[in-house]
Amino acid sequence: MTPASRFSSSRDWLLLAGFCGFLFFYGLASFGLIGADEPRYAQVAREMSAAHDWITPMLGGKPWLEKPPLYYWQAMLAYAAFGAGDWSARLPSAADASLMVAAIYLFLRRFCSGFELDGALMTASAAGVIGFARAASMDMPLAATFTMALLAWYAWRDSARRLHLALFYVFLGLGVLAKGPIAPVLAAAIIVIFSLAMRDARLLRRTLWLPGIFLFCAVVLPWYIAVEIRNPEFFRVFILEHNFARFGTNLYHHKEAFWYYLPVVLMATLPWTIFMVAALIDNLRAWWASGRKLSSEDALSAFLVIWLVVPLVFFSISQSKLPGYILPALPAATLLLCAYLREQVTANAPPGILRIVLHSAAAALLLVPALTVGYIVLQHRLCWGRATGISLALAAVLFAGLTAVLKSYGLRVLRTSTLLALLLAVAIAIQRGAPLVDATLSLRPVAIRALQLESKPLPFAIFLLPRESEYGLQFYFNQALGRYELGQIPAEEHMVVVAEQGSQERMARRSDGRRYLYLGNFAAQHVDYYWVAAK
User: Fold this and answer.
1) Cα torsion for 257, 262, 268, 273, to the nearest 10°?
2) Fewer beta carbons under 10 A from the terminal one: N or C of the chain?
3) Integer CA distances (angstroms), 14 to 8, 10, 176, 247, 334, in order
4) What integer best gives the mean pLDDT of the chain?
């Protein structure tokens, strides 16, 4: 490596570290854990850590077997280093996203030389990647391990180096530990379709490498066997209910339309959506024009198109749909865009004014939700008013600037100009949105207020609160919570967090003659606090 190339590589790594640090880690604890999943997964890891148990996930002191352990293990290590909290609970996803971006950079340095930084930064800055990199969930660990597995497989296919094939099996095994059998199912479908499209059936036989299969089993089987031995219900709960039943039925009430993932992918690839769609259409058009015969020069683009489409079709068929399911497909979209970008820049092809205008509009309009995030959080919609008018005016200025720059300099400056707009939008969204999200969607301030009202450490119960609130308070109180409406009323002195509407009448009916005292409320989330005497 020449001194110039070493300098370029060092500069690239510094840029990647800076971008990942800002997009994935900055303000990671600026608002508390939200929804049902984040606090629940974080609490499972905390209980496993407290019990020094690396086998059985526990929630409320009972086995919780809905998900495999990779996120929990990562969170346990983070808790050991930094203590249990919002930041450490989200750290595994942020770290996994950073590793995925680094793997993409290394892959593109071999297969898309000169544009490796573009592809890595475009992946890091896709809206879906940013969002799930900042969430305490299994989605990013799966996406990262799955992405690294497929990149390793394609590198092996090109180089025939066994090390790459070994890495494919290791990362595929980690994908199974991240979220279950979906990783090998999707990988197998992508590889089979790609091999058939390239008319290379031998590729399938070569992929089935016995030492690699042993490596896969060595990664996967120890935990799966151990957890089944300790918890004989594991196979039924995890495999039958949370994989087969979740895919084939609406058991968990996540029913959406068949086309649900089309808008999800379009939004998740912002601000790169327009050119990503252009790359997909151009590749499909070229494939069709060639009589549907793929040459070796088409291999990478064909692989990426198949990688993007297979998860999209698979999860569209599923009867249970959530946005995070499609995350493993997003790196294929940004990699496809990178390959398209190299082709266009190398050919000095003009991008077309319509694509420039649409891309500039998509990037500039990110300022609108960033600047009006307060309205969106509080009212769940974009409200028309003075703030919205100002944000639209600023977006119009940014749109004009982006359009002028791209029209003058072409796709060579696509990455730089777009990232400046995105960084501005992300910084504004975090600064303006985090306090509102914390106050209205996270149970962290509710718990802080409750603990301030305590005169001494007491057990807590809840009354008529939704599931999200139960899991959030369970994490922040770090204790199992009884539900009054289910008759789970502590016999000892305790505190109750109650849904605000009609709380006095409800407490009077449920108190069973015990003394109780109203302590205050948390208006932003419409809850009241009560002290209840011992029975």
Assistant:
1) -160
2) N
3) 10, 6, 32, 42, 21
4) 90
| Burial category of 303 from C-beta neighbours within 10 Å (exposed 0-12, middle 13-18, buried 19 and up) | buried
Residue 403 and residue 365: Cα distance in Å, rounded? 13
Residue 9 is predicted with a pLDDT of 81
- What burial class does residue 131 get, using C-beta atoms within 10 Å of its C-beta: 0-12 exposed, 13-18 middle, 19+ buried? middle
* Residue 241 DSSP symbol: I
Task: Give the residue-averaged pLDDT of 285-292.
Answer: 74
For the chain, how long is the longest CA-to-CA vector? 83
The region, left, alpha or beta by phi > 0 then psi within -120 to 50, assigned to residue 199 is: left
Residue 526 DSSP label: T
For the chain, report the end-to-end CA distance as a whole number of angstroms: 76
Phi then psi dihedrals of residue 365, to 5 deg:
-70, -10
| Contact (CB, 8 A) for 94 and 1 | no
pLDDT of residue 495: 95
Contact (Cβ atoms closer than 8 angstroms) between residue 72 and residue 46: no
Beta bridge partners of 531: 495, 517
Q: Can you give the pLDDT at residue 51?
A: 95
Amino acid letter at 354? Answer: L
By the 10 Å C-beta count (0-12 exposed, 13-18 middle, 19+ buried), 18 is classed as exposed
Lowest-pLDDT choice from 271-275, 342-346, 527-531: 342-346
With beta carbons less than 8 A apart as the criterion, state whether 317 and 260 touch. no
Q: Smallest Cα–Cα separation from 306: which of 190, 146, 196, 204?
A: 190
The residue assigned the tokens 């590589």 is: 9
Residue showing tokens 């604890």: 29
Distance of CA 397 to the CA centre of its chain: 31
Return left, alpha or beta for 129; rule: phi > 0 is left, psi -120 to 50 is alpha, else beta. alpha
Does residue 223 contact residue 68 with C-beta atoms inside 8 Å?
yes
With a CB cutoff of 8 Å and minimum separation 6, the contacts of 108 are 115, 116, 118, 119, 120, 335, 338
Q: Is the pLDDT of residue 4 over 60?
A: no
Domain ranges of the chain: 3-341, 353-440, 444-532
Distance CA 366, CA 269 (A): 12
The rounded distance, in Å, linking the Cα atoms of 349 and 353 is 12
Taking the C-alpha atoms of residue 298 and residue 314, their distance in angstroms, rounded to an integer, is: 24
- Residue 527: beta bridge partners? 499, 522
3-state secondary structure 211-233: HHHHHHHHHHHHHHHHHHHHCCC
Query: Given pLDDT bands bounded at 50, 70 and 90, which one contains residue 7?
Result: low
